[in-house]
């Protein structure tokens, strides 16, 4: 971190590397160290006078850096950071779908409480690492809101769906029957679509406002607010639409049903995908209307 701050200070004051250096990587007491073999100097962009990057002092003499953040090490750092995010997204999505499957298949009337609770604790677990999306519709909205890069969207969504598949398959192994995600028999296509869209919108608009807005930055209630939104939606909409509010929650169990069951739910998949992604996108648009200065 000290190296990174030094590099940033260099860029801020207009210092740029004049020559490249060779880096040696070794381990001291099990800790990886990076040291400069050949001297690297930094110069100013205006008078090209050499300065040392240290504790903020500027000396008109050439000095070598003790550490150097190279492009290769930066790439490695970014890759490691992305892996941490994806592992976190997998864990959170897995336990969400796993909890849904177990509680729904045992038939407990308290399933919505368990589902909202596990989502809440998983959000507190991973919010500081990956943002705790656990939902491709949330990832879409957070990207539209400008809080993640486009290159992160695909990996996030991919690992969320993979986690949902793994959890749904494990539920099948435990219960010897797949989790069926589907609307009630008496629910019309219009009701099915609208209910999923509206409650996905409600979930995502809450997430954007409590977890990404500048006005609520640093709050400690964001996980509770999000979990309670899912709990309310599961109680209210679950008996009507199946209460997915999440493309991964639909895709994982429906594909497992198609592989090991009778594929009776496969025809519902397109509705869940369109409605949930539509609700997430709508939430991102509305968030920008609510918070025009929050960019």
In short:
This protein is mainly α. 60% of the residues lie in helices and 7% in strands.
Q: What is the percentage of strand-forming residues? A: 5-15%
Spatial shape = globular
Q: Separation of termini? A: 27 Å
What's the total helix number?
Answer: 9
The largest pleated sheet is described as: 3 strands, antiparallel
Assembly state of the chains shown: single chain
Low-confidence stretches: 1-69
Q: Kindly state the percentage of residues in helix.
A: 55-70%
Strand line-up of the largest beta sheet = 1-4-5
Would you write up a description of this structure?
The protein is mainly alpha-helical. The chain is built from nine helices and five strands; from the N terminus they run αβββββαααααααα. The strands form two sheets. The chain has a three-stranded antiparallel β-sheet. Strands 2-3 form a two-stranded antiparallel ribbon. Mean pLDDT is 82; it is low at 1-69.
List the helices and strands and how they pair.
Layout lengths: L1 H11 L2 E3 L5 E6 L2 E6 L5 E3 L5 E2 L19 H36 L4 H16 L9 H10 L4 H26 L13 H23 L10 H20 L5 H14 L8 H22 L5
Antiparallel strand pairs: 1-4, 2-3, 4-5
Helix pairs in contact: 2-3, 2-5, 2-8, 3-7, 4-5, 4-6, 4-9, 5-8, 6-7, 6-9, 8-9
Keywords:
single chain; 295 residues; mainly alpha; three-stranded antiparallel β-sheet; two-stranded antiparallel sheet; 9 helices; 60% helix; disordered N terminus
């Amino acid at each position: 971190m000290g190296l990174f701050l030094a590099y940033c200070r260099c860029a801020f004051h207009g210092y740029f590397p004049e020559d490249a250096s060779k880096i040696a990587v070794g381990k001291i007491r099990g800790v990886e160290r990076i040291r400069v073999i050949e001297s690297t100097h930094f110069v100013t962009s205006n008078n090209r006078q050499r300065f040392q990057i240290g504790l903020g002092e500027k000396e008109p003499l050439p000095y070598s850096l003790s550490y150097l953040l190279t492009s290769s090490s930066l790439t490695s750092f970014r890759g490691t950071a992305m892996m941490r995010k994806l592992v976190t997204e997998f864990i959170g999505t897995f336990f969400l779908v796993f909890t849904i499957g177990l509680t729904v298949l045992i038939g407990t009337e308290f399933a919505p409480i368990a589902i909202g609770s596990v989502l809440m604790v998983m959000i507190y677990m991973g919010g500081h690492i990956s943002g705790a999306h656990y939902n491709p519709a949330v990832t879409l909205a957070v990207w539209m809101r400008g809080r993640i890069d486009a290159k992160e969207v695909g990996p996030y969504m991919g690992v969320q769906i993979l986690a949902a598949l793994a959890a749904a398959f494990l539920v099948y192994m435990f219960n010897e029957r797949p989790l069926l995600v589907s609307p009630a028999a008496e629910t019309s296509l219009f009701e099915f679509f609208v209910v999923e869209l509206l409650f996905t919108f409600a979930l995502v608009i809450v997430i954007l406002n409590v977890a990404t807005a500048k006005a609520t930055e640093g709050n400690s209630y964001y996980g509770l607010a999000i979990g309670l939104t899912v709990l309310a939606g599961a109680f209210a909409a679950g008996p009507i639409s199946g209460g997915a509010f999440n493309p991964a929650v639909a895709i994982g169990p429906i594909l497992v049903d198609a592989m090991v069951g009778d594929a009776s739910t496969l025809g519902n998949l397109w509705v869940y995908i369109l409605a949930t992604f539509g609700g997430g996108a709508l939430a991102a648009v509305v968030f920008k209307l609510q918070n025009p200065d929050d960019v």
